[in-house]
């Protein structure tokens, strides 16, 4: 038998159409009295609905969550939580909003109830990327793991389809890298393969049929598995590249994942043959990297860094940052090869 270590994460998950109706029960289980509701400015109305449901226990709304959690935003939100004497955060939104709740929990240990509205998977991880002085650094701390997560596919009907596809590719990226992680193990690999399958089957339906709750629910299940994978094992080259491009060049998080994933997978192809077999099986494609590129195209995400607004002249600096303090990766990180990978991603070539 293969020796391995696996730590089970203790988050409670509530799934189902209309699961948001169970929010008050979840808050009662935590026995908290002053709930701070967090959202992005764009999802203020959803935050107001959540606050209405919570009623007298809602202490206030903080609606300034933004992508990549700048340290200034984290500190402002922490001050708001302290001022309102909050004893719990409810994050309605996804990666950015959950990330802000985590930033608060990191310094205050407030419990989090997360209500994801994309497929990014952040709600299942004790990880948080905070951006300071143009560099995004990831912190792992069990205090940031939400106590409860409410997965309600109805909340995904308002997600613009271009974001739905891209955030689903972000979820798939967690699964792909879990399959070749240094800490890979049979339990995480099971979830990773199933996560890819659930997302890859359902995302094309999600983007084609805006009212399809079944596909949104199945894709949320995939996103939950993806989040567990991300929270359980370390990530590799792909996440390092995306953190570089997002943190230092301001590229949009989910779309960057969608563009880079086929190229990072291709980079690791010969170093992680078992992972590639699992990806191929889950996608039902002939090839892992090509299959991911085709899926990104099928769900309508941009296929090149050029389209995302990256300047070609910045690729040199991106390569420099990406090879600095590299994450563990199954294939050694060579600057020239990373520079070539970035060129392919910038041009949007299908990896062969
Ligand atoms: P997001 O949370 O930044 O949302 C993108 C935009 O879509 C926002 O304007 C948001 O308000 C809007 N939106 C989200 N759901 C919506 C809905 N259902 N209806 C209408 N509008 C909606 O996007 P994301 O991709 O989920 O998160 C990206 C951020 O999350 C990045 O900062 C990334 O680093 C972080 N992240 C962290 C982890 C982790 O484990 N720490 C995992 C994944 C992502």
Descriptive overview:
The chain is of the alpha/beta class and 352 residues long. The protein folds into two domains: 12-156, Rossmann fold (3-Layer(aba) Sandwich); 161-347, Up-down Bundle (Dehydroquinate synthase-like, alpha domain), CATH 1.20.1090. It contains 13 helices and eight strands. Helix 4 links the parallel strand 4 (88-93) and strand 5. The model has no long low-confidence stretch (mean pLDDT 96). Nicotinamide-adenine-dinucleotide binds at residues 40, 42-43, 67-68, 93-97, 99, 117-118, 120-122, 125, 127-129, 155-156, 158-159, 163, 167, 170, 230, 253-254.
Attribute tags:
352 residues; Rossmann fold; six-stranded parallel beta sheet; binds nicotinamide-adenine-dinucleotide; Dehydroquinate synthase-like, alpha domain; alpha/beta; two-stranded antiparallel ribbon; single chain; 13 helices; 11% strand; 2 domains
Summarize the structure.
This protein is of the alpha/beta class and 352 residues long. It has 13 helices and 8 strands.
Question: What's the layout of helices and strands?
Answer:
Elements: E1 12-15, H1 23-30, E2 35-38, H2 44-54, E3 58-62, H3 71-83, E4 88-93, H4 95-108, E5 112-116, E6 127-132, E7 135-140, E8 148-151, H5 161-179, H6 186-208, H7 213-232, H8 237-249, H9 253-267, H10 273-283, H11 288-298, H12 315-323, H13 335-347
Parallel strand pairs: 1-8, 2-3, 2-4, 4-5, 5-8
Antiparallel strand pairs: 6-7
The structure holds nicotinamide-adenine-dinucleotide.
Q: N-to-C terminal Cα separation, in Å?
A: 35 Å
Determine the CATH superfamily of the largest domain: Dehydroquinate synthase-like - alpha domain
What count of structural domains? 2
Briefly, what CATH class of the largest domain? Mainly Alpha
Would you give the CATH topology of the largest domain?
Answer: Dehydroquinate synthase-like, alpha domain
Largest sheet features: 6 strands, parallel
Bound molecules: nicotinamide-adenine-dinucleotide
Estimate the global geometry from the Cα principal axes: globular
Oligomer: single chain
Instruction: Give the % helix.
Output: 40-55%
Which residues sit in consecutive blocks of at least 5 with pLDDT less than 50? none
What is the SS-derived class?
Answer: alpha/beta
């Amino acid at each position: 038998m293969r020796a391995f270590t696996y730590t089970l994460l203790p988050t409670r998950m509530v799934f189902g159409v209309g699961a948001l109706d169970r929010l008050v029960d979840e808050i009662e289980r935590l026995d908290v009295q002053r709930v701070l509701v967090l959202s992005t400015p764009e999802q203020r109305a959803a935050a107001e609905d959540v606050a209405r449901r919570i009623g007298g226990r809602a202490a206030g709304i903080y609606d300034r969550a933004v992508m990549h959690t700048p340290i200034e935003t984290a500190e402002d939100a922490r001050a708001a939580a302290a001022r309102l004497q909050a004893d719990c955060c409810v994050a309605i939104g996804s990666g950015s909003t959950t990330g802000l709740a985590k930033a608060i929990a990191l310094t205050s240990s407030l419990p989090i109830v997360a209500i994801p509205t994309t497929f990014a998977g952040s709600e299942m991880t004790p990880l948080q990327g905070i951006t300071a002085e143009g560099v995004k650094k990831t912190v792992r701390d069990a205090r940031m793991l939400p106590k409860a997560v409410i997965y309600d596919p109805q909340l995904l009907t308002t997600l613009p389809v271009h974001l739905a596809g891209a955030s689903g590719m972000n979820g798939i990226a967690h699964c792909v890298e879990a399959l070749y992680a240094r800490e890979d193990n049979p339990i995480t690999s099971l979830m990773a393969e199933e996560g890819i399958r659930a997302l890859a089957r359902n995302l094309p339906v999600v983007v084609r049929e805006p009212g399809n709750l079944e596909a949104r629910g199945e894709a949320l299940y995939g996103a939950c598995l993806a989040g567990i994978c991300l929270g359980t094992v370390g990530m590799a080259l792909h996440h390092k590249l995306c953190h570089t491009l997002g943190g230092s060049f301001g590229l949009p998080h989910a779309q960057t994942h969608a563009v880079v994933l086929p190229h990072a997978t291709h980079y690791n192809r010969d170093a992680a043959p078992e992972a590639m077999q699992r990806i191929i099986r889950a996608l039902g494609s002939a090839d892992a990297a090509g299959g991911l590129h085709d899926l990104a195209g099928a769900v309508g995400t941009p296929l090149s860094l050029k389209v995302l607004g990256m300047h070609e002249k910045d690729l040199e600096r991106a390569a420099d940052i990406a090879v600095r303090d590299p994450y563990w990766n199954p294939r050694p990180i060579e600057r020239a090869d990373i520079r070539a990978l970035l060129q392919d991603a910038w041009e949007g070539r299908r990896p062969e």
